[in-house]
Design brief:
51% strand, single chain, four-stranded antiparallel β-sheet, 28 strands, mainly beta
Length: 384
């Protein structure tokens, strides 16, 4: 199976300017959905905004809000004033690195570039903000490293306050020849940082200093050899961590000890039906706002899978449904818990589903929007 980054190895960060197609301020009764894309084939121009009509879930393309090279993952600030972006390239300013960009949202809805820094590793693929929004956390896939960037009072980003190079490899010679950091975020207490590394089958845990942005290794959660952990999410009570494994098409539940920062495996389930025999690469994972249901995306089988979450945190499969397109990457659930939208990268589409709040089951909502190479979906705050 080829890596999702096979087409990125020669890409460079060549676009820094910002352009505006149309204003993207959401009118009453709608929300703004930010869309990150891949731009390396020339069809996409960068970051797009989509409006979701809250009563109906209908999507309308608002346009390009910023030109950027491979803005594959986004992290909006809670107040909606800023959007932080990884530029998933392997070369930046003549060095082997991607970049991290900070944008400020103007009154008309467009994004203006505040600052850009080298990510310190190739193909950065994930960015998140710490609980106080004073630091941006970045995972470098090709570099197999993680970095912490300070956020200034004006929303800009500075040079890293912490950088850690992961080491090791896994049994999959093609995909695990070295470390490949894939996801990074703080725990709900903001005392620890967790980083999923696909290349070494580990969730690496760091003690986090929220005052100075420092990392100190505290431990790790170990996955089965060849699992390839990709993305993870905490439950609402921060009792468990749910990890989707890209290489083994499994989902692992870890108990999380918020005092010691330790992980203990509790359950591993498949993401595929027994009848499926083709190649598959799980991608994203999210909870329903109620906490009663968990969803993940399968690339290859091209599906969204729903699980029921028991009171003890363990999972039972509920439903597998077509993603409505090819190669579903990230997806998002609206804050009201009524709709799920999935970015189908290879079919250039965002597809909507209705969610049954009682059963957690998905139904196609008849919503399909054309956007070139969509890979990341993030709702802006309601006041945007």
């Amino acid at each position: 199976m080829k890596s999702r980054r096979e087409f990125l190895v020669l890409s460079t960060l060549g676009v820094a300017a910002c352009t505006v197609r149309r204003g993207t301020r959401a009118p009453g009764g709608s929300r703004v959905l930010h869309v990150g894309t891949y731009t390396n084939d020339g069809r996409s121009e960068g970051i797009y905004d989509v409006r979701m009509d809250e009563p109906t879930g209908t999507l309308t393309l608002a346009g390009v809000t910023a030109q950027a090279a491979n803005p594959s993952f986004l992290a909006p600030s809670r107040d909606g004033r800023f959007v932080y972006v990884v530029n998933e390239t392997t070369e930046y300013e003549g060095r082997q690195s991607g970049a991290v960009s900070a944008f400020r949202r103007l009154d008309g809805g467009q994004l203006t570039l505040l600052a850009r820094q080298a990510s310190r590793g190739g193909a950065p693929c994930y960015i998140s903000l710490d609980g106080n929004e004073r630091f941006a956390l970045v995972a470098n896939y090709v570099g197999g490293s993680v970095a912490v960037f300070p956020i200034g009072g004006n929303g800009s980003i500075g040079t890293p306050t912490a950088f850690v190079q992961h080491v090791g490899r896994g049994p999959n010679a093609q995909r695990q020849e070295g470390p490949h950091a894939h996801c990074i975020m703080t725990d709900p207490s903001n005392r620890f940082v967790l980083a999923a590394d696909l290349g070494i089958d580990r969730i690496v845990v760091y003690r986090f200093d929220p005052e100075i942005g420092a990392l100190a290794r505290a431990g790790e959660g170990v996955l089965a050899p060849g699992a390839g952990p990709r993305h993870f999410v905490f439950d609402r009570d921060a009792r468990n961590v749910y990890v989707v494994n890209e290489l083994s098409s499994t989902l692992t539940v870890f108990a999380w000890n918020a005092d010691s920062g330790t992980l203990a495996e509790r359950q591993t389930v498949t993401t595929l039906p027994e009848s499926f025999s083709g190649e598959n690469s799980p991608a994203d994972i999210h909870f329903h706002p109620s906490g009663a249901f968990l969803y993940m995306s399968n690339r290859g089988q091209n599906s969204i899978v729903a699980y029921a979450v028991a009171s003890d945190g363990l999972l039972t499969p509920l439903q597998t449904i077509s993603s409505g397109g090819n190669w579903p990457r990230n997806f998002v659930i609206d804050p009201g818990g009524r709709f799920l939208y999935v970015a189908n990268q290879r079919s250039d589409s965002i597809v909507g589903f209705s969610i049954d709040a009682r059963t957690g089951r998905l139904t196609p909502a008849g919503q399909q929007l054309s956007v070139p190479m969509p890979v990341c979906l993030r709702f802006a705050p309601s006041n945007t």
